[in-house]
Amino acid sequence: MEAELTGQFEDDDSARLTSGRRAVSGGASVSKGKEMELLHLGEGRVLEFTVRGPEDGPVVLFHHGMPGSAVPMDSVLDSVTGKGYRVVTYSRPGYGASTASPGRTVADTAETCRLLMDHLGVHEYWVAGWSAGGPYALASAVADSERVSGVLLIASFAPYDGEGLDFVEGMGVQNHVLFGSGARGEQEQRAIVSQMAAIVRDSDPAELAAGMASLLPKVDAAELIGAYGVDNAAHMNHGLAVGEDGWLEDLRALTAPWGFDPADITVPVELWHGALDQMVPVAHGQWLTRRLPTVHGHIEGGHGHISLGVGRLGHKLDRLRSRTS
To answer: How sure is the predictor about 255, in pLDDT bands with cuts at 50, 70 and 90?
Structure first.
């Protein structure tokens, strides 16, 4: 399918959908995302997660970017909980308190998320993935096909070996270096990730925006120095608090075979990508739009990687759910 080019999509509170709600049991609502819960997976492994939003709301599993964590970002998720959704966030293995899992694939993490949703007693849910979280959201739709009702992709990566895709074309300098590090060997790859993590940790949002200039069109830089920047700093600092294993594992998982075929997804997919994105260039969204059999693709002119999602996910989820009502 070809992507639809859109302008600013206005949020419509009157379009809130109320059908198909499922309550989440087994986890308390978390105020402002400041508390964490741990799921014990056996063999000393744990997965960190939070749950927030109305107890009877339709459930959304949110897959964070790279680096990231279970700490919810109010500037992103308030638009979701404000529309009545109950949001589950988690830290992928190696981030925050979640036990590292060297060699994990994208599909492996989706299977771990399936166990999390078992634990919470969820019978039906939607998945959303932003940036590096996109492939994991797609994987969840395959790993838990009986319960996942739809997928929302925000500025998602396409497969590293995607046919006809130049993976790094159009990326800023930092991402060129990051995704080219695998060819330099494991030791140098770890050194590059460690250097980038040192820059990200405890950075002032304005300083971070200046350091990431090659990745940020003006619309994204403006978001990074606002409320989102403060939320994002807490989100990433928590993920990197005990080291960079999660970032390194993510990088390797994204550049290796994902462990599933995106063409096997049968539930509705809503894909949104900013035309100005310099972190995950729009070619990734276009590639996925051509290959996902159930996708509705939307390329938003005037938006980048960050501005596409801040304060704007709630209506995108409503649009996805309208296809399953």
So the answer is: very high
Question: Helices (DSSP H) in 181-256: which residue ranges?
Answer: 186-200, 205-211, 218-224, 227-239, 245-254
- Encoding tokens for residue 288? 């996925």
Give per-residue pLDDT as tens, 281-296. 999 999 999 999 999 9
Tokens 């949002």 belong to 205
Q: Domain limits at 126? A: 4-322
For residue 28, give every residue at least 6 positions away whose Cβ sits within 8 Å of its Cβ, in sequence order, or none. 37, 51
How far, in Å, CA of 220 to CA of 310, rounded?
A: 10
**Contact between 208 and 200 (Cβ < 8 Å):** yes
DSSP code per residue over 252-279? HHHTS--SS-GGG--S-EEEEEETT-SS
Written as one letter, the residue type at 276 is L
- Short-list 69, 90, 89, CA closest to 77: 89
Q: Comparing C-alpha atoms, which of 154, 114, 162 is closest to residue 258?
A: 162
Strand partners, 50: 89
**Cα gap 301→299, rounded to integer Å:** 6
Asked if residue 284 lies in contact with residue 157, where contact means CB atoms within 8 angstroms, the answer is: yes
Interval 83-114: pLDDT, tens = 999 999 999 999 999 999 999 999 999 999 99
Instruction: Please report, for the domain that includes residue 139, its CATH number.
Output: 3.40.50.1820
What would the mean pLDDT of 298-304 be, rounded to a whole number? 97
Task: Give the chain's domain count.
Answer: 1
Would the pTM count as exceeding 0.85?
Answer: yes
